[in-house]
Amino acid sequence: MQITMNRLLTSRRALATAIAALSIGITAPLQAQETLEQQAPGVTSFRDALAQGEVTLGLRARTEMVDVGGNDMDLTTLQTRLTFASASYQGFTTLIEMDDVTHVTDFEGGVSDPEGTEVNQVYLAYTAGATTFKYGRQRILLDNQRFVGGVGFRQNEQTYDGFSASNTSFENTTLFAAHVHNVNRIFGEDSPAGDHSNDSYLLNAKYTGFSAGALSGYAYLLDNDDAAAFSTDTYGLRFAGSQANIGYALEYATQSSAADNPADYDADYLLAEANVKLGQFTLAGGYELLGADGTNGQFITPLATLHMFQGWADQFLGGGTGNIAGGIEDAYLSLATSLGGVKLALNYHQISSDDSGVSGMDKLGSEAGFLVSGALAGVNLSMKYSAYSADEFSVDTDKLWLTAEAKF
Predict the structure, then answer these.
(1) Which residues does 323 contact at the CB level (< 8 Å), separation at least 6?
(2) pLDDT tens digits along 163-176
(3) Alpha carbon of 30 to those of 26, 50, 131: distances in Å?
């Protein structure tokens, strides 16, 4: 059954305004004394706040080796991240973060880590009582990043230009609202696809007062000026928690095309997953559906951290939509443990078409992968591998990542 909640509303902008007003805590009084107490000791001016700020340096070197249908593509990169965060003055703080990505070896097509130097984040924040406002370029990570994320695995992170507000006035509740006018995508500002102009609203409310877990409700109203096919209205609920040695998550969302999207469709999203701890091991399994509405369209997630889902080989990016015609069903298993401070993980995905009549395919493919990670002398090291075996979609693809990361 398709649910089109937005059609019951007279205006999507009216909904955005109403929830945004709630999320910035208009219903909760702001206490000036609370704001002053958040001021750093010895800070009597914004100049002092800048002088007492902290500078951090991050380095991440990575070699990515890709084999697509027998064609090899390798690239070694170095990400250098310099971050300055000021101290607080009367509730005001600022953050400036610069990223540089350098190609240590010659660039090979097929690896999504472009070379260049960019402003990753730059914003002014103000905290009053239980409400924090941010204006500028910022990182936004909501829930498990299935709908809104930063693609932090890539050397060039996805960040957002706009205004956001987060409020914790109500017990066990976090309310978040943002208006985004530009998305800085992982392809870099020199790429035509690197920036997408938007007029989008991100609304999320999370309640953690249940003993069984946390409940999130969200409305993501996307109006993408540069890629009209990314314009969608998505409404959903997510519940995730754990009891004893068992963890679980259930999620449902419905989506409709919006704004100037040339398609006209309604599609559903469904997630059910669980994990159990067995001594030193954690066994997990799940099912995820990104549904389709016949030939009209399919459920998409253009702001997601797509690398975290449907296998690490990134075979189902769908041009940045996270789906393909006919939709996707993903059944997966994983096994993880830690030995002597070294984390080990294995995973397997079996991916099928939701509507084979539309896609012309049934069993799309399968993927197996492993991850080994740990720290040595203050340096985080990891080796990640994925092998995608094509059935009716794409071609056999193998990817290996060797990463070393340190922060100072």
Answers:
(1) 290, 292, 298, 299, 300, 301, 316
(2) 999 999 999 999 99
(3) 9, 25, 8
Q: Are 159 and 187 in contact (CB under 8 A)?
A: no
Burial 235-266 (b: 16+ CB within 10 A, else e): bbebbbbeeeeebbbebbbbbbbbbebebebb
Can you tell me the distance from the alpha carbon of 375 to that of 405, in angstroms, rounded to the nearest whole number?
9
The string of pLDDT tens digits covering residues 326-362 is 999 999 999 999 999 999 999 999 999 999 999 999 9
pLDDT greater than 70 at residue 34: no
CA geometry: angle 301, 306, 309, nearest 5 deg? 105
Compute the distance between CA of residue 231 and CA of residue 296 in angstroms, rounded to an integer. Answer: 14
Residue 63 near residue 74, CB atoms below 8 Å: yes
Domains of the chain: 5-407 (2.40.160.10)
What's the CA angle centered on 300, arms 359 and 113, to 5 degrees? 100
Task: Please tell me the distance from the alpha carbon of residue 291 to that of residue 252, in angstroms, as a whole number.
Answer: 11
**CA 312 from centroid of its chain's CA atoms:** 14
Q: Pairing mode, if any, of strands 159-167 and 131-138?
A: antiparallel
Q: Which residue reads 């310099």 in tokens? A: 82
Query: What are the tens digits of pLDDT across the range 3-15?
Result: 334 433 444 554 5
Per-residue pLDDT at 12: 56
Residue 308 contacts residue 299 (beta carbons within 8 Å): no
